[in-house]
Amino acid sequence: MKSGILKHVLCTGLAVLLAFTPTLLPIAAAPETTASADIKTKDEVIYAVLHPDGSVDNIYTVNHFTVDKAGTITDYGDYTSVENLTNTAALTHYDDAVTFTADTDNFYYQGNMAAGELPWLFDITYSLDGAVLPAREIAGKSGSFGIGVKTKQNESKDPAFYNNYMLQITVTLDTEKCGDIQAPDAAIAAAGKNRAVVFTVLPGTDADLSLTANVKDFTMTGIDITAVPFSMNIELPDTGGMTDGLIALSGAISDLNDGVTELNNGAAELKSGAQSAVNGSTEIKNGLTRLSGSSAPLIRSSSQISGAITQITSSLGSASAGDLSELPPALTQFAGGLKEISGGLTNLKGGFTQAYGALDAAVQSIPAEAVSEDEIKAIYAQTDINSHGTIDRLVASYAAAQTVLGTYNQVKGAFDAVGPAIDELTASLNTITPALEEMAKQTSGALGGMEMIGQLSAGLTELKNNYAAFHNGLKAFADGVGAASAGYAEFHNGLSSLNAGVAVLSGGVSELSDGTARLNDETADMPDAIEKEIDKMLDQYTGSDFGALSFTSPKNKDTGMVQFVIKCAGIDKPKETVTARPETPDETFWDRLTALFRYRPE
User: Fold this and answer.
1) What are the beta bridge partners of residue 194?
2) Angle at Cα 556 formed by Cα 552 and Cα 557, nearest 5°?
3) DSSP-based helix, strand, coil % in the chain, nearest 5
4) Which percentage of the chain shows pLDDT scores above 90?
5) Among residues 4, 200, 345, 381, which is most buried (max CB within 10 A)?
6) What CA–CA distance (Å, rounded) separates 521 from 515?
7) Which domain holds residue 108?
8) Are 101 and 30 in contact (CB under 8 A)?
């Protein structure tokens, strides 16, 4: 009996001793120093939980300090509450400041953030058989499943994270529930029976991502999103070879600009020459038209003169001295008419020669040297495709100019023959006119005797025969002038079309010259500009200029690394309802401890 009582007392005493033991055991106490700690680095890991649609549920931060010298640290953040994750020492939390004492090595504390915003906005949608549904309504269903994930910048947060952080979005699917997984913008990796569909969103960019699969009895774990500073160790290539080619290209563009400038000058000269040719051709055309119009009256007058000579000759045999008295004035008048015809032909030749000279000079200024097809192809190859329309007009105008030149060379012989023909007609007239004047003079002196009638008759007969030849030649000349006038009108129209085409060509080449001049100016420093652009693009992805900054507060210094770990709620089937049975209250540690020493009567 005494032994039982003693055992009971000892057990009770031991229980009391154990109950107070925790206060007696050593605890990792915080240093008593109040000096500021020396912080080597501070890292922040931002944990966020999203609703299935991508909206933020809650955010908390784990702050990690690497301490070289123990002391007091004050950190900042918009927290609703804080928790020491390193030891049991209390944290002082007032307003946005968190103060604590840290020993050397590592110190962790958690801050539950008040503001539920991230640097990115997420919009997540789910669909089944083409119908967009809330996530909870797809759980346990089968059919054609789809996920859409859109990301964009949250403009209310510091843009440094959006512009410098890469997002990695991972969707994990169970292959026993999902098949025919399609995600064009993602990498798909096997992880046991699961498939990890990984999307990457580069810094400074929005994304519109999609995934499809055929599912049955569907469930899925949550979407995982991580965000870290983007930095790539890129072995930069030697751009010397590239820039050498660009320098050669820039030189070729400069040569092209020089060639087009010369072409522009030549086109301007061609335009001026074509206009001069048209002006000279207009004078020839008008002169031939006037000459052709006056040919008919001239032939009629000549026919009347020929008839008069024939009538005079035939009537001499029966003419009396009185009748012959009228002959000398008629011959004198006839000779005067022939002089007027001779003067008109001389004036005609002068105008024709002047106009023909201007036309010949203008047409001969058209280059006769042929341009080969290879040379034309080279021009096309060296110019921008937007300038090919101008080159087409240039080639067409060149072809038209060559046609005009060829046609002119074919009819040039006829033009050359006009002047000599007029000279021949004028010479004939100049021969006949003195003879008529001499005949009128002799006739006037010989009218006193009839013995001269026979001689006069013989002279008039010879005049009639010579004049008939002259009349036939004049008629042939008039016919030739009429044909030349009709044919020349067509030639003149072609020359006018050429002039219009050359004007268009000159304008097009002028525009081409302006364009190549601008191209030459803009590409003169192209190698340096491209090299700078390459460096700029590489800098965008190497992250060399980005300095880490705190997400929790701009007041925080010594921030080394900030990363985001984001979890989106999954899709689970609702749990079956089970009738609850009364539960035995859980025993506390004290209950279990005292039970070990509870007195049990023997």
Assistant:
1) 174, 191
2) 140
3) 55, 25, 25
4) 30
5) 345
6) 10
7) 38-114
8) yes
